[in-house]
Amino acid sequence: MKSFIDLSGKYFLVVGASSGIGKGIVQGLAELGANVHALSRRGSADELSNLPSVMQVSLDATDPTAIGNFIKGVEIPYSGFIYSAGMRGKSPINTITNKQVNEVFDTNLMGFLNFIKEMIRNKKIDTGSSIVAISSVSAHIGIEGLVPYSASKAAISSSVRVLGRELSKRQIRINAISPAMVRTPIFLDSEQEWLNEVEKGYPLGLGEVDDVAAACAFFMSDQSKYITGTDLLMTGGCPWHS
């Protein structure tokens, strides 16, 4: 058997690429030979600047006009699209506002859908390509104070099931990945002791960015050509996530 995953010569779009899981996904795809457009509000990450196959772009995923203009300017149709942009939006029910909910949904859901819409309309995603949304285990379980975030991630997981059928007519696959707790730079040094305590509830330990990036690479590859409309739960065996 040849190399299990080889993405040489393929072109991918990753949104939410400047840090954490998104940045790890870009690095993983590049290591497997892919060319990557890495989009984020920040527009650049030092670690990605050293990768010749990665082009970093500053773009607001909540701006439909900016999304449309960017996609129209793409010269080569993408082999795959990964949406990793997200806003947490923690708030107990008695403090929730319409503005907060709209901001979370605009980032977590509508940006994802608008990118897909523009790629389909402008024929900028290939037949046989793959789409992945980074959802969250919060879409499947109740975590206190995370109504806007959890609801938006549940909407992503539900959208993937619907679009799995809709996009199959174009031979385009779409799936979600729902990680539980993953160690990323978002956690401060002062939180490491708390993370170590949390990790005791995970039989396989807390997730790493590379774990999610590897799953994403699988979904981008032809090895997953018969999988669509699914939501992959990555829980490390934690029973309250299952």
Low-pLDDT segments = none
Given the helix and strand composition, which structural class is it? alpha/beta
Please give the largest β-sheet.
7 strands, parallel
Main sheet strand line-up: 3-2-1-4-5-6-9
Gap between N and C termini, in Å? 34 Å
The run of helices and strands is EHEHEHEHEHEEHEHE
Percent helix: 25-40%
Organism: Polynucleobacter cosmopolitanus
GO molecular function: oxidoreductase activity, acting on the CH-OH group of donors, NAD or NADP as acceptor
Pfam families: adh_short_C2 (PF13561)
Protein name: 3-oxoacyl-ACP reductase
What does this molecule look like?
The chain has 242 residues and is an alpha/beta fold. It has a single domain, classed as NAD(P)-binding Rossmann-like Domain (Rossmann fold), CATH 3.40.50. The strands form two sheets. A seven-stranded parallel sheet has the order 3-2-1-4-5-6-9, with helices on both faces. A two-stranded parallel ribbon has the order 7-8. Strand 7, helix 6 and strand 8 form a beta-alpha-beta unit. 42% of the residues are buried. The model has no long low-confidence stretch (mean pLDDT 90).
